Amino acid sequence: MEQMISNPAASGAPAPGDLIVDTTTQTFAKDVLDASMKVPVIVDFWAPWCGPCKQLTPILEKVVLAARGAVKLVKMNIDDHPAVAQQLRIQSIPAVFAFKNGQPVDGFMGALPESQVRAFIERLVGGVGPTPAEELVEAGRMAFAAHDLAAAAQAFAQAIQLEPGHPAAVAGLARCYTESGDFERARQTLGLVRPDAKNDPEITATSAALALAEKSADLGDTSELLARIEKNPKDHQARFDLALALNAKGDKEGAVDQLLISFDYDRNWNEQAARKQLVEFFDAYGPKDEVTLSGRRRLSSLMFS
Which residue among the candidates 19, 42, 43, 50 is catalytic per the annotation? Predict the structure, then answer.
């Protein structure tokens, strides 16, 4: 499967340049007061030296774009254009004001997390939908579930273009490469995640799935392993290898069953290798997966019986 990163398809939403602008003292009236007669306008007062501003502004831009034209964002550098901030008696930044019908109607000071910024904008305009990148991620997930790896990779790659480092998009694209057997490119893709999302559950689950795929790559046919188990049900190594092979084929339930049987026979075999491999499976499947939930319950029952 070739890497597919291209320009995102047009969504029909207003262009970012129409929704997010920089203003000056001279253009403030047109960009904010006049514009707010049609839609609410959010003004982000910031400065280049302000660390929290650098955290907040990308969040504001993301949520404003998700609102698809229901609200606009105007950014004002108070170092270059201090007059308006002085008139509004702004004493610390970042400072955010919302204008409707030419008047300030709401606002907040300081950097807020995305959930609170989204709630702030929703008070102005009602519900805020998913961003274009989030829509592409969902499309990628649907294509992946339908085993259309090419379409899934395309959608995830486009989402990464729109929001570089987006953890769900990075994880999705890495899973496409893992599924196609291109483990090196999968690992490179995981390295694209933005720094603050390295421990995102989707990233950690995809990393675990990649490790499992690499471990299972050379196991080959399962018939020999099944024959060994039939001859000796307590052949733990055969069960362990069979579990890896079954997981690689997508039979998660079968893989977990084999390791639970091994653990039940001898939990201390190879320094509890069956239990440790089960935990690795659960990490790869994710905490909400039905096989994870069932497997954890069954493992706990065996451990404390």
Answer: 50
C-alpha angle 50-54-57 in degrees, rounded to nearest 5: 120
CA distance 121 to 129: 11
The pLDDT of residue 5 is above 60: no
Rounded to whole angstroms, the Cα distance separating 176 from 172 reads 6
Q: pLDDT tier at 9 (50, 70, 90 boundaries)?
A: very low
One of 19, 20, 43, 53 is an active-site residue; which one?
Answer: 53
Strands 41-46 and 95-100: antiparallel
Distances (CA, A) of 119 to 45, 107, 230, 273, 275: 19, 12, 60, 47, 43
Determine the average pLDDT of the residues in 50-57: 94
Q: Is 176 a catalytic residue?
A: no
Compute the half-sphere exposure of residue 118: CA atoms within 13 Å on the CB side of its CA.
11
Distance linking the first and last C-alpha atoms of the chain = 47
Q: What would the mean pLDDT of 273-295 be, rounded to a whole number?
A: 93
Cα torsion angle, 250, 167, 155, 13, sign: positive
